[in-house]
Amino acid sequence: MTETGPHLQAALRADLASATTRLTAAGVESPRADAELLAAYVLGIPRSRLVLAGWSEGARDQFLELLTRRERREPLQHIVGSTGFRHLELLVGPGVFVPRPETESVVEWAMSAIRDLERPLIVDLCTGSGAIALSLAYELPRATVHAVERDSAALAWTRRNVEATGTGVTLHQMDITGDVPAAFPDLAGRFDLVISNPPYVAEHESVEPEVGDHDPAVALWAGADGLDLVRAVERAARGLLRPGGVVVVEHSDRQGETAPAVFQGWDEVADHRDLVGRDRFVTARLPLSTQQGRPTGQ
User: Which of 7, 73, 120, 191 has the maximal Cβ count within 10 Å?
Assistant: First the structure.
């Protein structure tokens, strides 16, 4: 970072205060943080160093341009072109669902469930940007990870992130409402973990502009109760998992009872909360005694 004079530092502080006011008026959830992140982005420095920074040549004009885009509720991640997820920086933009911090707790639970396995076999359904699959592959280097996505635009972002992170995730394009196990003829019934952050917004629900206007519809809407894709994951997991394997599925904070109810006949069905205490994901274990790929009692 180049040294700046007091007047440039004061100008930056004043612009951050003004930007915070503008973003607050626009309804942005975290106005000060977003203003600071945009300033740090155009200055090319970590946010933590803003306290010592001032505007460099051309940076203020770029900041004001990007601020206008954020004021119009364009996602911050689209503006800067990436988002942090656990230990990775992932490329995102139009055409792919932006990973949320709450999904990190889903990954954390999954890793703890299979960490002791020597060579875990994992499949991530509805992978989107690849956040879940890539994190598991990065943090569990002994794992073999497959990722499934039906949307071509999203899959293009997944491929970019696989290349950028250098992780050995195998990608598959398919619709999980079909016969997913048939697409894995040599691996069906052998997976240790099925994990998914599927679409889970009900048709009648409203979402904030950053989501409804910018995230792809195919990654959001999931039928009258928002559980159509959770049911599809449950069906796929029955044929993909080995007996005793586990499934982990994210859901909305309004589905803490209805999502677990999808897993009738499974063992150890439990719902879990995220780091801020909201119902967030369901886990279940395929019974050791199965019948034609279906849990006993189904």
Answer: 191
